[in-house]
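We modelled the chain as a single entity of 287 amino acids. Its sequence is:
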Amino acid sequence: MARPSSAFSRPEGPELPAVDERIVAPESRYEIIDGELTYVSPAHEPHATRCSKLSALLEAHVADDYDVAADMLTRTSETSDIAPDASIFPRARDPRTGGRQLEELAFEVVATQALSNAAAKAAKLSARGVRRVFAIDTDRKRALVWSPATASWEILPQDAVLEDVVLAAPLPMKTLVHAVKTDDAVAEALLVRKNRVVVQAVSEGEARGRAEGEARGRAEGEARGRAEGEARGKVEALLAIFAAQGRTVPAEMEARLRAARDGQTLDAWIRRAATGATVEELLANAK
């Protein structure tokens, strides 16, 4: 999905009340739509768990200049005061009213049978000036976006990715749709946003990895050095045996002896040389 421009003309005319001017009392679990008082009952499991994941994902992906809200009332007209399940709005205060600004994105978690009810709210939010309104259908595992042009919901592709100026990182819609843990998507978003805690943890992990690797390298290098030193000492002992016996070792064979690194092989050669074996006999079966 293309990232829209941040420029957007909202119908904020003087005839509209401020978005945070209330008709119903906050925290009362009521909305008003076209003057009709509607009780919003507490959510059951599918709706409640999806709302929790939705809020977590939005918090992880939201840009620095924006904030996320859950169930925040928005005054859409003289007769309507409604609360989307989640919304994203600018942190800066409204220069005209001194209150909060209108949300730019709104989200509703719905069951299929409630889509028509969500459509009424989406139409009013959109008419007020909310740029994009989404529905997460928990029954059919799909995401939809409200189309002001057709006054209806449009189904988004399963692989749709939400990109918007209010988001610091692209948000795969499938993470909102499917009832799965949000850990990976949240972690990826925090990495994209260069979250201080996450970046520090990654840096410390990389530093530990480098230190452990260097320590292993030093230990392995020291072990190789000791083995090579022992091998060189055994070759010198072998050559000393041949010299004591008055036997000359040709340069080519001496080079092959000095190239040997296996300690057990060199020990065997020393024992055989001490009992009279020639250098040719020692190297006859050498690889």
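As a brief sanity check on the tokenised model: DSSP finds eight helices and twelve strands in the chain. The longest strand covers residues 105-110.
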